[in-house]
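COMPLEX REQUEST
Ligand: flavin-adenine dinucleotide
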Amino acid sequence: MVSNHTETSVVVIGGGVSGLTLATLLRKSGVACAVLERRDRAYVEVRQRAGVVEARAVRMFERWGLADKLLGGPVAQTIDYRVNGVGRIFNLGGDNAAQGRFCTQQMLVNNLLRELIDGMGGDVRFSVADVTIQNDGDGRPRVGYSDSQGSHAIVCDYIVGCDGDRGVSRASIPDGVLTSYSHEFGYAWLAALVEAPVTGHPIMGVSDHGFVAQLPRGPQRSRYYLQCALSDGPEDWPDTRIWDEIRLRLDDDRIENAVVHDKDFVPLRSVVHAPMQYRNLFLAGDAAHLVPPTGAKGMNLALYDVDVLAEALLSAVRDQNRTALDRYSDTVLPHIWTYQDFSVWMTDTMHDAGDPALHGEFRRRTARARLDTLFDSPAAAGLHTDYQRGVV
Ligand SMILES: Cc1cc2nc3c(=O)[nH]c(=O)nc-3n(C[C@H](O)[C@H](O)[C@H](O)COP(=O)(O)OP(=O)(O)OC[C@H]3O[C@@H](n4cnc5c(N)ncnc54)[C@H](O)[C@@H]3O)c2cc1C
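STATUS: Structure written out below.
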């Protein structure tokens, strides 16, 4: 077994959208940084999820001089809020300054890998295992890992956990330091990537048979989301059932079956772990918080975290000023709670308004009234637009 010890300034654990964005911002600013990712590059390049980079994150990439290298074109400025097949188009307005950009998470990750590794010679180590974290305040932090060459250790100044909800970073923090706040919605989504584009407006659909959405994922593809039971798995949802349910929930017999590329089952949960730091370890993205995908905010929150964290790390490394770093968690948490609130609002509204078996007729009617208010009240519409665009 080979054992190598190296040094760097920042070790980022996790090469998903938050880890790669942070590493790109640091590398662009001249801060030495290594990313440890447990999967291989090919796997990271094909993992599909989010579809829109909201206006706040677009401004961030513009500020760092990266928007045109990393992001796609403008996004649809409309949402079709459908109830039992009857559509109402919600207009997000045409103000360019507050627009998000279309960019699937996969596109963004691919562009980040190209920019960071191929463009800047960044240090991303794929297919690592057994990551361990030493952050006990006794000397410089140290991250251990193994790969096909043997075991290694990196001595560093700061560690950033960007390794998602099930990573090692948060788990390395001693019991009693973090408080976890969570809410379970009691149902899941089947997420199906299909070979059929959105032909009209992106759809968020309420139905007596459960929630359904169709969102764009490129010129030929879209992602359908179908509310399902927490216990459901692939065996419960053959492709024929997926298409039958889509037709039923959208009340549209004209929809034709198409190829289903993949199916994911996502339990809907909201979680915040706070504070998002311990000594020289900082948590970002899904490692620190989860939102249900209904509000499309998970990736965007991850980008917000790493924007704040990159600036704070720069101050600490370049100017030896730790003030912003010490305040990192306090700085980002208010915005995280605001987006948690929006995501709960969207999730409750879109699901309660549908199948009355979920929360009863009373909640169904109040949820439908909430949806109507978006179309009847300019004040409600304005706030909803700001949330959807990501300028809150
Ligand atoms: C079905 C679905 C739809 C979604 N839709 C949207 C949307 O429309 N808009 C939106 O903004 N968000 C959306 N999200 C949320 C978004 O995908 C996540 O919030 C985002 O991926 C978080 O990025 P991250 O980098 O923090 O975590 P991840 O993308 O999960 O990356 C974590 C990385 O860490 C690696 N890792 C894990 N453990 C280790 C370890 N021990 N050692 C080394 N590496 C490790 C993983 O392999 C992974 O590459 C959706 C999520 C789902 C599931």
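REMARKS: The chain has a mean pLDDT of 95. The longest helix spans residues 328-352.
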